[in-house]
Structure formats: C-alpha cells, structure tokens
Amino acid sequence: MKNTLKTKATILTASLFVLVACGQKNGKKGTTSQNTVLSEEALYRPYFHFTPEEKWMNDPNGMFYYNGYYHLFFQHYPDSTVWGPMHWGHAVSTDLLNWKELPIALYPDESGYIFSGSAVVDHENTSGFGENGAPPVIAMYTIHNPEKRDNDQVDVETQGIAYSTDEGMTWTKYQGNPVIENPGIRDFRDPKIVRDTTRNQWVMVLAAQDRAKFYRSDNLKDWEFLSDFGVETGAHGGVWECPDFFPMTVEDTGETKWVLIQSVNPGGPNGGSATQYFIGDFDGTTFILDPGFEAELNKRKAFWIDYGKDNYAGVTWSGIPDSDGRKLFIGWMSNWEYAQQVPTTAWRSAMTLPRELRLVKTGNTYQLASQPVRELKDFRARASKKHDIALNTPFVYHTESNAALNSTEISLTLEGIGNGTSVIQLYNKEGDSLTFGLNSQKKEFFIDRTKTGKTGFSEKFAEKKSVAPRFSSSATLDIHIVLDKTSIEIFYDNGSVVMTEIFFPEAPFDTFRLTATDSEAVIKEIAIHQLKFD
Ligand code: FRU
C-alpha cells in the first residue's frame, strides 16, 4: 500500500500536484477518507524564503543595499531546473523577507557564463562610471568559459565587472573585461569586494582552489595581487569557493577584527557543501589569524557558520548604512550533494533566512553568532506563550486551529539540563517526522530528517542524521527555531551553533513535541509565533 501511494504521489508531483493526505499510507494510524490534493506551490513553495519564480537557482550574488532596497542577485539558469549556463537573476526587497523578482540582470555571452560575485555602491565614483552625480553600482563576477573547460584548459575562469547607473536595475558589462586574467589556476572565482576605509582602498578576495587570494584597487578596474591565505589552514575537504571578507566590531570589547568567510565543497561537517570562517587582523595587505582563534582552530579543525547540510555559498550585503550597522548574511539553502534532485518541478532551491552576524569574544577566542534578522518579528501574528513547564511528561503543542507549523517561529529556554537528551519532534498525521535536539552526554546537537517524507530522490539526502558540537556547558539552553514549509533553521545557545536543513513532507507538520530525560528539566519559557505573510 505504502509503495503504491508513494508512486502515485511521485506521479502527481511530476504534474505539479502531490497527494498530501492519504490516511492509510503509514498503515498504522487507521484511515481517513481525506484525499486532499495540494499543489506543489501550496505544499513546497516557501512563505518567506526567497525562491526564483521558475527554474534553477544556486548561490546568492552581488547583494547590496541602496536607497531603501536590499538587492539580491543569484546564480540562475532560466531554462531548466538543473544547473546550466549561469545568469544573474535579480530580486529586491524593502524588508528582507518579501522579495520581488525582477528581470535577469546579467546574461552569459561569448566570453562565458556569469559565475558568482559581488556588488558595491561606488559612492565616490572611483570607477568613473557614475553619471550626473549619482553613484554607480559595480558588480564583479567570474567569467567561466565553457569551451575552455571542455577542452581541459586551465585558464577557464577570469574576473569581469559590470556597472549600473540606475541603482542596479540595468547593467553594462565593462569593455575592458577581463579585469583579472587567469594566473594558471583552474578554480579561480567568486570575487567579493569590500571598501577598506582605513586605507582608502578597495579590497577583493577570491577563491583559488585551496586558498583565498587578496587583491587591491583604487578604481575597481585595475587590480593588484596582495597575498594568499589558507593553504594549510581550516577545512580542505574540497574546493574553496565564495569567500567574503570584512571588518567587524567585537561585541562588548569594541575591537575591530576581520572575518574571512570561506565556503568549501565537499568537506562540510556533515558531508557535502558548507561554509567555514576565520577571524584575524588585516594590515591592508595580509590577513593573519588572531592567535586565540588560531589556538582554538587547531583544536576544532574548522569553525562552521552553520552545521546543517543546507547553508552554502553565503555572503554578506554591502552598503548597509552605518546608522544600521548590521552585518547581514544570506546563504543558498541547499547542498551540491542533492540540490539538482530535490523534489520540486517548477523551481529548484531557496535561500536561507537573511541573518544578522555578530562577532563575540568567548574566552580567548572570537566566534560568529547568527540570528534571524529582526524584521522577522514584524510578521508575527498569533502567539502562544507558556512558562515553567516541568518535562516529566512530554510537552505537546498543536496550533489552536490545527494550522500547520510551517510559517512559525519558536523560542524556548530549557533549564535543568543534565547529562540526558532533550528531543523535539515535529510531525504530521501522515507519519512524517523531523527530530532534533541535544544529546548532553555527547555534548552534541543533532537533526534527523530521515523520516521527513520524500527523501529517496538522492541517497545522500537522508543518509544519516547531522550533528554539531555543543560548546557551552550551561544547564540552560536557548533554542530559536524558524520553520517554513520546507526548511528548519535552528539557532542554539544565542546563535553560536546553527543548523539549517530542508525537507519535503507529504503534508505540513502540525504537532510539536518536546521530551527530556533529565528529571530536573523544565521549559522556563516558550513562545510560539505563527508568522503571517501576504
Ligand atoms: C558555488 C559555485 C561557485 C560558482 C557557482 C557557479 O556553489 O560553484 O564557486 O561561481 O557556484 O554556479
């Protein structure tokens, strides 16, 4: 029975419809006569995570803020739901959560595909592309030549720029491209530009196979190589891609440190694609690890921005005004292990929630913490708040109207954690469940999506549960969870450990259950917010 229904569901999916409620499916819970059919849009299109209207998307690119708009560009192939000749798609938002997709910004041409890169507002018109006193926006990206790739040439990737004189709406490729030739390195890509205000220069970092390379420029057109970083540092399970580099103020101490974000694929902590980071100092030429960070890195081997399987190629927005001062990050919420097989047919992939990064000092080291952007709070509709709940019996919650837990933010604080486990399960009447939590004995967080519904499209997708270390030894644990239709983002211990994963249930999850084995464990407080988007 199960197989027959699964097959039926697959066929329906292919025609944009999926069978979501079929009572006999798991054979355990008796029958219901419901045969509700939800469209793929209704079941899987996220409420508040960006997805392209149609077809393939991977990395976020060229994010900048200007004049009230957050711009988000993205690796896009508008002709298929699998990767192909890369364009830059484009979307804008005024609140980081409601996105409007705009016409494609950059098309591939005879020089090659438009791979990942960045964009900056050139306020002082250092590039000279500005017109009528308005600052131009400069995008820098990798030109990837497919013919050279197919001929096994080394110089496949060079860097180019494009400029916009209408605040990012339309773009002109620079006649003098490429602005950086290939130095004889096959993987040489993903330029990210930052303004180094201390030295009044533009600094750019790009990924070159097993290292990051730093360059400088005065005008965004002429680039000079500065230095290399990382060949023997951090995680090297695969190719380094999509770096980001910027100064940040350390919370509480007020010092300035430089952060290098560096994606690697494969070689993530739970397999496949993931993003690590490094913290240190930059003298305008060279990036040197902070000694305390380096000592901790030697123990941990890598610092990961997210331990879940679905946060890759993430970088930060440029141009956030000083009056705001946040470092805003977004990642691609998928993994190259299975991104091209996930079970959606109209579009493929979503971005993570935009997040605010914070730089905190813990003991002798520095680390990044992430939290959902505060704008998410503006979408809270109904709330259910409770406190001081003993966990000698499980805590079970369903929404009052049995609404789905798929546009939901849950914040809770557990106290009295000993050596046991604290386990949260989300489930539906179809028998699908997502399980996550903490195993204190192992000092390990985990997330298990092996029973979340459609998992068989790739053997890598639900091969095993994902785990993350818990660094804190506190008996108090705060957990902040953001749920959309096909994703969970979990921020533990004030965002110092993050796990993001996607899933494809046959019907929305509607019940939340928390069990703890420690006899003293209590929910100090819990707030469950249903989020509302138009
Ligand atoms: C990362 C990446 C980048 C590259 C782009 C191509 O996911 O491989 O290194 O620029 O995707 O689409």
From TrEMBL:
One cellular-component annotation, GO: cytoplasm
PROSITE patterns, A to Z: GLYCOSYL_HYDROL_F32, PROKAR_LIPOPROTEIN
GO terms, biological process: sucrose catabolic process
Residues of the Glycosyl hydrolase family 32 C-terminal domain: 376-529
InterPro entries cross-referenced by the UniProt entry: ConA-like_dom_sf (IPR013320), Glyco_hydro_32 (IPR001362), Glyco_hydro_32_AS (IPR018053), Glyco_hydro_32_C (IPR013189), Glyco_hydro_32_N (IPR013148), Glyco_hydro_beta-prop_sf (IPR023296)
Alphabetically ordered keywords of this record: Glycosidase, Hydrolase
Name of this chain's protein: Glycoside hydrolase family 32 protein
Lineage of the organism: Bacteria, Pseudomonadati, Bacteroidota, Flavobacteriia, Flavobacteriales
